[in-house]
Hints:
By secondary structure, the protein is an all-alpha fold. 95% of the residues lie in helices and 0% in strands. The protein has 1 helix and no strands.
Amino acid sequence: xxxxxxxxxxxxxxxxxxxxxxxxxxxxxxxxxxxxxxxxxxxxxxxxxxxxxxxxxxxxxxxxxxxxxxxxxxxxxxxxxxxxxxxxxxxxxxxxxxxxxxxxxxxxxxxxxxxxxxxxxxxxxxxxxxxxxxxxxxxxxxxxxxxxxxx
Length: 151
């Protein structure tokens, strides 16, 4: 058993440089490779997350601009519609005024025509009356005239 313990002691003593070398290698790996790699990965992660957040903010800003554009487009359409409606109303009013003026002129022409017809009727009646009197006088003269006297 002493021999086993002695061999175990020698083995442990021989393993000390390996353990020291392994520990040194671990610390060198951590200092040279692992920590810089972790920093690079952390930086990449933060940049990626930052880029994602920036892209989300850009998307939100684009959506806001789109909504604003759509709102302005709706307002412009409403303005155009109101302008068209105003022009349509103005055209209808102008048409109504033109019809009123034509109607007034037509009524004036009808009144003038009626007055002219009335004057012509009165003139015709007075002419007929005068002619009727002349005919009546002629008829009376011929009826009352003696039969043998020719005039």
